[in-house]
Amino acid sequence: MDKCFANGSAAPGPVPKGHIRLFSMRFCPYAQRARLVLHAKGIKHEIINIHLKDKPDWFLEKNPLGLVPTLETEAGEVLYESPITCDYLDEVYPQNKLLPQSPFEKAQQKMMLEHYNKVVPHFYKVVMAKENDDKAALVAELKEKLVKLNEKLGTKKSVFFGGNSITMIDYMMWPWFERLEAYGVIDLLNSTPELKHWYDCMSKDPSVIACSHSTDSHKAFFKSVFTDGKPNYDYGL
């Protein structure tokens, strides 16, 4: 079911046999990380979308933090936080491995993710900027971060951040890049050629395509959040 579950809604039944359940929100980039991994690995799953401003009590019983993504297994085991859920999926479902086998390379990806997580707030600063904010300065800060990512990718001499095929770190980074045009800063990629090539290649990935929303949809959702103050989690349905 696509439409989100709000407080007062009936709790879903048991996780379907042979599936794993993902509690998500259609426009959440963190939940999109888990959806990308589920799709890339071909894992049978059910998605339950949550109204993040009016969360059902039964969801808070499963995850007291009320965060998405949250996973629930057939056995009733519950996990949350996007890197934890994605690593779990890659470990439990052996097909189409996304994390490197080498402990050192795996650690490198986790270190890179820690670095990238410090870049993410700069995307939000740009999209949340008010009229009296110095938006040009915020965009310049983001550009500086993207230039450093571009340099990191350039030193690897590969198309993707983990080599010449998509790995976990690429999917962990992608959701915010999908929104670059909606943020109004897609032109920043003109200053980062390696990152632009990565962006173009990621845009063609079947899992990225399957788990994406259009720029117009992202813009409409941002408007509902930042202008109207009433997030429309069901936009487009």
Automatic annotation (TrEMBL):
Residues 132-159 form a coiled coil. PROSITE patterns: GST_CTER (PS50405), GST_NTER (PS50404). It catalyses: L-dehydroascorbate + 2 glutathione = glutathione disulfide + L-ascorbate; RX + glutathione = an S-substituted glutathione + a halide anion + H(+); methylarsonate + 2 glutathione + H(+) = methylarsonous acid + glutathione disulfide + H2O. InterPro entries: Glutathione-S-Trfase_C-like, Glutathione-S-Trfase_C_sf, Glutathione_S-Trfase, Glutathione_S-Trfase_N, GST_omega, GST_Omega/HSP26, Omega/Tau-like, Thioredoxin-like_sf. Gene3D superfamilies: 1.20.1050.10, Glutaredoxin. Keywords: Coiled coil, Oxidoreductase, Transferase. One of its GO terms (biological process) is glutathione metabolic process. Residues 18-97 form the GST N-terminal domain. Belongs to the GST superfamily. Omega family. Exhibits glutathione-dependent thiol transferase activity. Has high dehydroascorbate reductase activity and may contribute to the recycling of ascorbic acid. Participates in the biotransformation of inorganic arsenic and reduces monomethylarsonic acid (MMA). This is Glutathione S-transferase omega.
